[in-house]
Amino acid sequence: MAGLQIHREEVAGRVTLRLEGILDGRTAQEVHTSLASLSGHEVVLDFTHLREFKDSAVGVLTRDLVERPVQLRGLATHHERMFRYFGVGTGTSPRRAYYTPEDVLPA
Fold it and tell me: What is the rounded CA–CA span in Å between residue 93 and residue 41?
């Protein structure tokens, strides 16, 4: 199984795109095309079944996720952080750091 498979599931007006396989810069273009065809729908991107998720895909997907609300599901912590670096909210609240500079440095 090479590349990426995009499984579309629609329930009660919400479309879930379940991604399976390898998501990289090239295959992220396929996801971009799928998202463009779903304008006007509530969309969930499910990353749970990916075998590989290359960081280059985050840059490709970011413009789609900034322009419209898309719920993200099944992201690893690393990829949640990558999306946040690009200004895309992942729907999870960031965890408090183990310590903050204010805790360590005296006033």
Answer: 25
